[in-house]
Amino acid sequence: MNFNNILVEKENGLAKVTINRPKKLNALNKETIEELSAAFEILEEDATVKVVMITGSGEKAFVAGADISEFANFSVSEGGFLAKKGQEMLFDFIENLSKPVIAAVNGFALGGGLELAMACHFRIASENAKMGLPEVSLGVIPGYGGTQRLPQLVGKGKAMELIMTAGMISAEEAKACDLVNHVVTLEELMPFVEKIASRIMRNSMVAISAAIRAINANFEDGVNGYEIEISEFGECFGTEDFKEGTTAFLEKRKANFPGS
Ligand code: COA
Fold it and tell me: What confidence category does residue 218 fall into, taking pLDDT thresholds of 50, 70 and 90?
């Protein structure tokens, strides 16, 4: 995979996607969004990849937002199209990926950067990370799902405050309001994510995909999440992973999931 703005490495079932525009604090320009979208499409189909993590290059930023220089002169319709296209091709795609996606938030995660982290299945931050949705300070609102996913994670009142003040919160504050799951030092960030990824990979990835679909169903309009859970639960009984998982338990041995 050759890209101009991102790096993709794979090792032991974990794919590491790094946004690599450190001089622009990894801001998401059009090309970077397109490359991320292409990379996630490839990783979704790559059977050797079980877990994906996304981070920013350098020690200062995860992603400092959408690239302001690209949209400063946009019209109403161009603005609407920017948000719609980005949501469809990247942010929603990540949220609905069939394999776990972890954000390793290693610095500023602002605007589209925090929205990218929030589209991931969960987030680990380093102590130096700073997070916020500063869009109203630019005269615009979050457009890559931020007004929807932030209240899902931190509650409506906290989301209202963060968006209205355009303020930044520290990693510890983000943990206190459940925006991130863990805070570790910058040096510990990669090993910590790798450890969680390897813990995930011990389990049935087929069942994990079903769990992602069932959990996401809770946040879809017009969808009854309990019904999706029942149907996904039932489907698990037809998988080889279920046969292996239950047999291994009864035989008091470690499961060796075939992944089908
Ligand atoms: N879009 C485009 N360029 C950006 C950017 C963004 N969202 N965020 C940072 N950059 C660029 C800066 O313009 C600067 O480029 P330059 O060296 O060519 O002038 C470079 O990245 C470094 O940023 P700088 O502002 O000098 O770093 P800093 O340490 O002084 O400040 C921030 C860091 C994150 C506080 C500041 O860059 C910032 O406020 N960025 C915008 C955040 C934002 O509003 N995001 C939401 C967008 S919708």
Answer: very high
Instruction: Exactly one of 115, 220, 240, 251 is catalytic; name it.
Output: 115
Looking at residue 112, its amino acid is G
* Ramachandran bin of 133, using left for φ above 0, alpha for ψ from -120 to 50, beta for the remaining angles: beta
The phi and psi torsions of 130 (rounded to 5 degrees) equal: -135, 135
In whole angstroms, what is the distance from residue 241 CA to residue 236 CA?
8
The residue assigned the tokens 């983000």 is: 174
Q: pTM of the entire structure?
A: 0.97
| Domain match, 131 and 230 both | no
Domain span including residue 218: 205-250
What CATH number is attached to the domain comprising 46?
A: 3.90.226.10
Nearest atom in ligand 1 to 69's CA: 2
Query: Within a domain: residue 259?
Result: no
Q: Which residues line ligand 1 (CB under 6 A)?
A: 24-25, 27, 64-69, 108, 110-112, 134-135, 138
Within a 10 A sphere around the Cβ of 165, how many other Cβ atoms?
14
> What is the band of 1 on the pLDDT scale with cuts at 50, 70, 90?
confident
Total tally of structural domains belonging to the chain: 2
| 41-64 pLDDT tens trace | 999 999 999 999 999 999 999 999
Query: Residue 257 falls within a domain, yes or no?
Result: no
- 224 and 155 in a single domain? The answer is no
The reply to whether 26 and 110 lie within a common domain is yes
Mutate to test the pocket of ligand 1, among 5, 24, 115 (most ligand atoms within 8 A of CB): 24
Considering the candidates 135, 235, 240, 244, report the single residue annotated as catalytic.
Answer: 135
Catalytic annotation on 70?
no
Looking at the structure, tell me whether residues 185 and 212 fall in a common domain: no
